[in-house]
Fold these 2 entries.
Entry 1:
Amino acid sequence: MADTPDTEYPSPLRRLGTRLKQKLPGNGNGGRPRSLRYAHLIGWGKYLPEKVLTNAEIAQIVGTSDEWIVARTGIRERRIAAEHESTATMALSAAREALETADLNPADLDLIIVATASPDHIFPATACLVQDTLGAVNAGAFDLSAACTGWIYGLSLAAQAIATGSLDHALVIGAETMSRMVNWEDRETCILFGDGAGAVVLGPSRKPGGVLSSVLGADGSGGDMLSVPAGGSRMPASPETVSNHLHTIHMDGRKVFRFATRVIRQAAIEAVEKAGLTMDDIALLIPHQANSRIIQSAARGLKLPAERIFVNLDRYGNTSAASIPIALCEALEEGRVEPGDRLVTVGFGAGLTWGAAVIEWMAKPPLERPWRSRLRSVLYALAGVRSRLRRWWRQLETWLFRPPAARP
């Protein structure tokens, strides 16, 4: 009789080892226990285009007024990307600032996530463009599509990967060029959106804190409430889709409003309870900046006073996935966040998606290290040289090793 492989009839010793591994704590580490790690936010940065578009200027494009827009949304102005700017270029600027505050070099990154609903291309991923220009040679990179909730989704994924030891440093960016996604003849949507980018760097620590909990949710049955109908595989571009403005944002404002006011409160409470806290422990709520009435409704539901809610909607409008990281950066700049404070970030968006995260802020203001900043500037310049050399080599390689011509 032939010998039976161990995989089919394992030996008693092998079976014992398997049982022991199943009982040992571990997260994808072969059953071996792993020391507890926490994912802390150690760097942050933002970018906003210089061009400001006021309500009065929009009123010259479409039938509306400053009073009408402010009363219904709370927005007074928004930023619009210049012709030479894109989601990738704005994400890159925010990323460099985040690396600066983290005092981290691009090669130290293990992962780059760009949350966006307005990527430079369907593919390649905008994150890959950022990875190349940064010179983050050791990082994986991908785009995350969860609309306005995308940054919270990315934060949750990166924090869990760091906590389990899968990686050490992650760059999570929210970046949008929404001004190129709106129909400037539709006053229901063109008044809402603006452009910008915000980024954070996450790193590991044995010290408790950082991302304490996160909650993610989705309900695809409401996908038609907020969408860009054309441009994908279901409805590819055609003269009809272009003439009917099907490549721009379509929104049922009333349904989105009712959905948002409900899920913001629910998600925030669930995330806080998951962290073992109460709303009394929360120093600041940083919501997705979509509409002032939605934020006010959430504040009432959570019984939070205005001074414990951060709002910059009036100056930037809805920057989709970029809105929460931009607001976080501004809250830090204004001294609204101190080490030891617990924050709640919460958002909602197309999909439908929603999410919330509780963060215990432990980072301190970065020390100025001019020589380190100069070194990073050199590394960014070298990244451009490296990218050009790699493209040149691919062309040479294709020429040198091209397959022989087929015989007639």
Entry 2:
Amino acid sequence: MDQARVVVISRAGRASVPDGVLDGLAVRFVQRQEAPDPGTAVVLLRDADVLACTNICLPVLDEVLLQRLPRLRHVVLYATGYEHIDLAVLDRHGVTLSVLPAYATPAVAEHALAMLLSLAARVHLAHDRSRGTVHADTSLRGVELGGRTLGILGTGRIGTRLARLATGIEMHVLGHDVDPMAVARAGRDGIEMVSKDTLLERSDAVALCASNQRGAGPVLDMAAVMALRAGVLVVNIGRPALVDTAAMMVALRAGWVRGYGVDEVVLGSHSPSADLDLLRQGRVLQTGHSAWWRDEVLERGAAMFGAAIVAAAQGCPVDVVRECSRGQDALIGVGT
């Protein structure tokens, strides 16, 4: 059998994996700042059996492109989320997709707790007031989290780790997930698993740690936002699409939701919004997809990326994702 040919496309090029990990493989490194267009992708990948790529450099893997890449058998993605990839198309062309489900788990769980603490203590707003970017009379009054209830929607790796962290500051934790395996594991970890309705009704703070399923609607739509307990804090450490942003802004403005933290930019000058005052008031905290950006994550991710490339090149891909069909209330915990 011919040796598998690997193409690695990333901003870091050879530095995407530790030295020596891919020795002995037929590897071509392509350093780019963005995804190649279809024509360029064909040129880069026409002889590839394995494509290893970061999200920002991933070409659109559609029918047209894959028909022109008959050798391609494996895609290794340096990421955890994959809702932007059509698994059915990959399956029709006999292509597997491997991801890195656990490389950023500790950092993302810690970031979720940090956002929750910041919203409760109004740390970000206190910082702004000390810099004179908000009025000196702006209230910094917050709440204590100890003794309150945290509801976690999505009890995969990140959700269960967040549960342990929250327990450490004396919060009571509720969990909800639609995956029976995640429910069983969370129960064994001591998390009280409840229905989604019960979680929304009982939680003083809610953290979304679910993966965003392709084609699914928000986990917190308008009805779910209105079902939250008055004065709740909400942190979305997953994708913005997990929450109906417009509904959340309405709830914030009405005072029903006390604060909303999201690891993305949902309000900004690039898209003028009537809700920018909520940023200035500190009721929205957004961190621009930085939850995973840690020294340890980069080191761990590079090692895992290299190992996954080797496994795919040897015809034994690891952490392969499968197509699944979920309904409106898709809520698979990240890394389950």
